[in-house]
């Protein structure tokens, strides 16, 4: 097979480019990755010991380095699927070691510790070597193709951990990690159809612990957050994954939707389910009544009664608030093979906008992109939870 590799470049320059994005093979590949992952993880718990409870517990020091965990013994010796998952776990462990060696700078600062830029410089310098160490060459690729595969893959990998320029982390970076894993699936490095669903969940668990440590230690600003009027300051995909875990389970083996906000359920499931774990992290970093600082999530758990409906609604909201939002997808770039800017029906190259990209001069920590305008429900682009109603209405 002949591959037309090219390093990822910016294609979504203005908001009117989003319909083109929705016609692209890149968009199709992202959706295929989501569907493949969800099919494997429904009804599956994360084994105890893989999600670090310190990350989601306010009383403890989350900057303490957690012991590195190994995958459980495989059912079959030298199982291909366990080895594939282990490689990515080790890759993420090496990312965590960069944090170990890059302490935050001292001194008061609400958002964006400047040590984060040093961290990103280290990541950029080490990224290629890390990928070579832990991503085996797919059998379908020759040596030259493998090198170009890594060229494309590296963009999505590096972009999975936040922005050096803006000192933030958000759903666009979470999307890049999905793209990274989707590419590994496509070339059978981490084949979703062959490995166990629990291995996929363990990979995501390790990723989320790594990035949440970055958020806490470097006080990273939420990228594109809607504040109290959004689902979550930093994440969205994690809720989809966790809701899928609660789907297709035997009666009584999953908590009710309403009970998830209770402390008893959080303690029971925060190390086993990504949805509950994400809510526990909110309690770790925010204070005050939950219905005030996380009104969307509160709406879900007071108006929806089936996990199947929660999952369906979250997927629709992901389409509206991630794939359809220019501030998010403008940072998703397109290469020649992994996520091409080509029409999914005709395979023709899609047109690109003539508009020039504005230089990124946003100062970290400034509200609403540094404009000085306070964010309110009336001046942000937002999509209310499509399946829930506000209490009392």
From TrEMBL:
The keyword Signal does not apply. It is an enzyme of class 5 (isomerase). Pfam families: PTPA. Keywords: Cytoplasm, Isomerase, Nucleus, Rotamase. It catalyses: [protein]-peptidylproline (omega=180) = [protein]-peptidylproline (omega=0). GO terms for molecular function: peptidyl-prolyl cis-trans isomerase activity; protein tyrosine phosphatase activator activity. It is found in: Cytoplasm; Nucleus. Its EC number is 5.2.1.8. One of its GO terms (biological process) is DNA repair. It comes from the Eukaryota. GO terms for cellular component: chromatin; cytoplasm; nucleus; protein phosphatase type 2A complex. The keyword Isomerase applies. SUPFAM superfamilies: PTPA-like. Belongs to the PTPA-type PPIase family. PPIases accelerate the folding of proteins. It catalyzes the cis-trans isomerization of proline imidic peptide bonds in oligopeptides. This is Serine/threonine-protein phosphatase 2A activator. It comes from Meyerozyma guilliermondii (strain ATCC 6260 / CBS 566 / DSM 6381 / JCM 1539 / NBRC 10279 / NRRL Y-324). The lineage of its organism: Eukaryota, Fungi, Dikarya, Ascomycota, Saccharomycotina.
């Amino acid at each position: 097979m002949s591959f037309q590799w090219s390093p990822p470049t910016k294609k979504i320059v203005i908001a009117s480019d989003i319909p083109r994005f929705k016609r692209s093979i890149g968009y199709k590949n992202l959706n295929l990755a989501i569907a493949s992952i969800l099919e494997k993880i429904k009804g599956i718990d994360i084994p105890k010991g893989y999600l670090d409870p310190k990350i989601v517990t306010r009383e403890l020091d989350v900057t303490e380095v957690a012991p590195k965990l190994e995958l459980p013994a495989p059912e079959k010796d030298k199982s291909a699927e366990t080895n594939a998952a282990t490689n990515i776990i080790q890759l993420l462990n090496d990312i965590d070691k960069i944090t170990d060696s890059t302490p935050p700078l001292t001194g008061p600062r609400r958002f964006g510790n400047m040590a984060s830029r040093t961290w990103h410089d280290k990541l950029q310098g080490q990224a290629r070597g890390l990928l070579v160490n832990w991503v085996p060459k797919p059998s379908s690729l020759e040596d030259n193709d493998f090198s170009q595969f890594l060229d494309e893959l590296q963009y999505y990998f590096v972009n999975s951990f936040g922005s050096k320029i803006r000192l933030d982390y958000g759903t666009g970076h979470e999307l890049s990690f999905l793209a990274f894993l989707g590419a590994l699936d496509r070339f059978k490095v981490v084949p979703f159809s062959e490995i166990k669903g629990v291995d996929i969940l363990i990979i995501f668990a390790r990723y989320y612990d790594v990035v949440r440590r970055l958020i806490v230690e470097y006080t990273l600003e939420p990228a594109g957050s809607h504040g109290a009027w959004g689902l979550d300051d930093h994440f969205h995909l994690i809720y989809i994954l966790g809701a899928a875990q609660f789907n297709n389970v035997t009666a009584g083996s999953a908590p009710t939707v309403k009970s998830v906000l209770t402390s008893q359920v959080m303690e029971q499931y925060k190390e086993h389910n990504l949805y509950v774990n994400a809510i526990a992290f909110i309690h770790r970093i925010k204070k005050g009544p939950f219905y005030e600082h996380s009104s969307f999530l509160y709406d879900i758990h007071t108006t929806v009664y089936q996990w199947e409906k929660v999952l369906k609604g979250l997927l629709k909201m992901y389409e509206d608030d991630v794939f359809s939002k220019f501030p998010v997808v403008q940072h998703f770039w397109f290469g020649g093979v992994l996520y091409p800017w080509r029409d999914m029906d005709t395979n023709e190259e899609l047109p690109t906008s003539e508009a020039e990209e504005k230089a990124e001069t946003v100062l970290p920590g400034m509200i609403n992109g540094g404009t000085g305008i306070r964010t309110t429900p009336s001046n942000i682009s937002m999509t209310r939870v499509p399946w829930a109603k506000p209490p009392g209405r």
